[in-house]
## 1
Amino acid sequence: MPTVQIYPTKPLAFTVVFHSPQVVAYRLWYKRPGEAKYTIFATGTDNEPSNPSTHTHVVDNLSAGSEIVYLVWLSGNGNSPYQIDVELAQNGQAVPNGSFSLQGTTDADGFAQKKDTINIV
Amino acid sequence: MKQMALHTGATPVVTLLFLLAGATARAQDSASEQAKTAPYAMPELPAVAFIGGQANTIARPVTPRALATDIVNGVDANGHLKQGLAVAATPFSLLGGSVNLSQYQGAWWRAALYNAQLSAGSVRTATDNSSTDLGTGLRIVLYDNSDPMRDTAYTGYVRRILSRALPDEPSDAAVAAAFEKAKKDVIAYRKQWRKDNWSRSGLAVAAASGWQLNESKLLPNPDNRWLGWSAWATQSIRLTKSGQIMGQVRYTDQQRLVAADGSIRRSAQVDYGGRAIVGSAIVNFSAELTGVSRSNPLSGAPKSGVEWAAGVEFRISDAIWLSTSLGKKLSNDANTAPGIVFAGLRWEVNTDARIQVPTK
């Protein structure tokens, strides 16, 4: 479970970059301290019209103790390698320890799932 | 024509009744016939196909570190290569290459680059328990129009299935249930897509080589020996939405050890085959011609031979296919006169289509 330190008053940009030929659908949630439920702040696929390989979503006012959850589903050919990069940034600068490369191979049916929680401190 | 036997035996109706009574007993016969009529396919792991074994485990590393780990794990503490292992890696992605889906669909060469696969495998040497045959191989699918990931209509529909199934909240239970449903829907759609697109054209090539490692030692050893090399090419051409012709040729240059005097004997062999198949939901037809030509065959092996088979099957209910096939084998064995040595006609009842269309 990765932990990143950010400036709570500045917007946080969450960027997803696709490097392999699978269909991807993903959803991003956040939960601020004291909140009971997660809130969806982005839903996307690998084929947004603006840029087919790089998608950026922004969320504001995440104080220490907040969580971001990402869920990524992939469907491609069986046993095919995949790579998706996740990058967090504020004011155009990469957040320290805020880059993750999701790598692996799809299963025999061509599916893979990646889900993790990022803790904000 | 020296020999010929036509096994019709009884009328089809009587034969059908007989076969219905003993369908279970003929399961093995069906399996062997299945193998004969199985579609030509490029070996998934040419390295393992060349050394003629079967890998117990297949590692698919996606990073250089994982590859290094798999290689280290393949060697025991005494430096002996473990047997029954295989590694398959796509060098393009292993080295950090990037091909997203739109690039994959837009240029055949990007797809070929992404799918190019290196493989290695180890099996126990057939004649020496302490030695290991090590194979290495390369497979390149130059183009494959039956690859659903190259079809924007297919990927667009799968994208809709996945994005609509995403759960509202990220609990493990909600995610698992939603993903299972999405996978089920994608698999059902893919099955239908393949049913409609199985006959599309494709071209793939592969090559492999191998070594026999004395005492299974990976380090250079004067007693290790090269086993030769092999190359494959497979082409499929779409005739219609429900018809396809396919051809495959394989060349093998083998370095065989002659047990009697310890000498190395070289033999070259060309295997070739062509197959036509036309299928629908209720009836399938297939015709197949295969042959082999050897430059320096081992004693007892014919110098060349040709075999053909043709079959038709009908779906008589949801769970029952009635099939029949006819085949001949022509041998040019130096010890026997050329001619037809087998011809047969048989009826079978199967629960699945015996003539399966190629799928990935």
Note: Chain B has a mean pLDDT of 80.
## 2
Amino acid sequence: MEDKDSIDIFFEEYTASLNFLVTDGSYEPPLIDRRSTWGSIIYKVSDLDIALELSLDARDFVVSTYIILFSEASKPEVGYVSLGKVVCLFLEEVLERLIAKFPSVQEDLKQWRVSVERYHKRVRRSLKMLKMPEAEVVRELFRTDADWVAHFLRQYREEIIRYARNYWGL
Amino acid sequence: MHALGRLLAVGSEWGGYATLVPTGGARKAARAAADEASEQLRRQGVRQASRELKPVVIGENMKKRVEPYARMIGAETIDDWLARRKWTLELNAVWVQEMKKQGRRVIDIGPDFARRAKGVAPSTAYGLERRLLKGYLNYERRFLRWRKLRGGNPEIDRHEPWHYILDEF
């Protein structure tokens, strides 16, 4: 990881995998933000106060995927909670709610964890030796995760949004 | 005035300018007194600096926890110090040492238990910060922990873990 920035790789891989959200018109073009230690990509659902957020913690190479209440959770001073209300849900926990209706989600979630963990192990090994991981490993990690996120959104986008609308009463 | 007293009054920082040159045991005692005076001045300086400089926040999950919390309490994070430079583990360690040198108050909001509960491993960078801050007097812990995967900071974290904690009692 000498010359390539993990945040740049993050932007490249996730926007490439999730571009279909914008091209079919159901989401607005992504809002991209970065600091030295994190990067984030937000895809807001057109005409709804709900968005998909991908957030990279660049210190650990961990990408968290959230479904957020856009007007609240996109504020820089807001994290998981705003005025006592949860405004940020993990995509994973929303998908877990869909298992009863779509049993195949359970196996997909398991596969998602396993395939991402394979690369994460290599990243952690480097960090433990106080070395930055190789750019190619980081790219594979992000690409694998981005492909899984894209898979879930292709398959269950409507159900995910429906769950979020009910959760926030929209 | 006694030579030792004179050195104490001046302080070791300026001890070199003292015209008196004690010998033997007196020199040893003078050096010890000078060191003590110097340490007192250093501590005073650090205390003064920590009153003037903003505290810094550490913890897991920079975007969703550390930065919002720092903004909420008017503190800073490593991002303010990095000022858009590329993050590295080495710079992270330098930052911690720098904050200690400045005598900054370091507020620790702890692990992101919600993320850990999803199977995410503990952060290496945060672990490094904790190790470097061991024994630091201006370290302030602002999170609770209940077993391995439960706890957090009630001001910033989601409520579910708190319900679990209450369930245990």
Note: Residues 6-168 of chain A form one domain.
